[in-house]
Amino acid sequence: MNEGLNPNQILRWYLDAGVDETIGETPLNRYVAPGKVETKAVRTPHVPAPPPRQSQAQKNIQSNSEIVAQACEMARESATVEQLKKAVESFNGCPLKTTATNTVFADGNPEARIMFIGEAPGADEDREGLPFVGVSGKLLDKMLASIGLDRQKNAYISNIVFWRPPGNRNPTSTEISACLPFVERHIELVDPEILVLLGGPSAKTMLGRAEGITKLRGKWFEYETPKMSRPVPTRALFHPAYLLRSPGQKQLAWRDLLEIKQRLPKS
Ligand code: URA
Hints:
By secondary structure, the chain is an alpha/beta fold. It has one domain: Uracil-DNA glycosylase-like domain (Uracil-DNA Glycosylase, subunit E), CATH 3.40.470. Helices cover 41% and strands 10% of the residues. The protein has a 6-stranded mixed beta sheet, sandwiched between helices. The radius of gyration is 32 Å and the shape is elongated. The protein starts with 6 loop residues before the first helix and ends with a helix. The mean pLDDT is 90.
């Protein structure tokens, strides 16, 4: 049929006949009778479909939930503050630990009736392994003294994460959620009569609220876990580091401190 035609003419002939693709998606057996189109020319052995691929985000979520589950178990098994400290020190699930020098667990008297929870250790705290020992710690000590508190006697201080975030950035939600089971257990074991959350990240995390510190300060909340026998009256307070940057807000912090003082158990 194509005798005497050059390749160009042959292609033109195909195009005119409507054949504008030379390769189809589906294998076609051209030996079957015309009209009977058999699309599965080759039988392939049955290979089970591979499991659906997990995205990196899904893998992260899974491993994050495993980390939180491990933190919960370690926290639950801690029956004393000392055991909890050891558990936190041996926990490797928070990525901040890899860049930190020391674990910063707590400072003060664990028998105190008032417990303060800040955000994260800074450079000084990382060096010394104790919370609030830098400049903002000095201001915190003055704030405590103004209402008759002293961390060596009647106040207990910790943070929502136990390791310094590099460059003093805010801890991420993953870092916070890895530490949170320990923080919750810490409060259960100390069993304070008043809880004070220093700064927005601490207040939002512990109260499970979305508002910022300006909205959360100035009122009482109740903090409770299923293991606690009673809810703890809880107050959010401006972070001392913020007060150093915005001294105009000290007035409001002072008001909050006086309200806290009124609720402090008389000893
Ligand atoms: N800021 C905090 O929130 N915690 C510390 O321990 C030190 C500074």
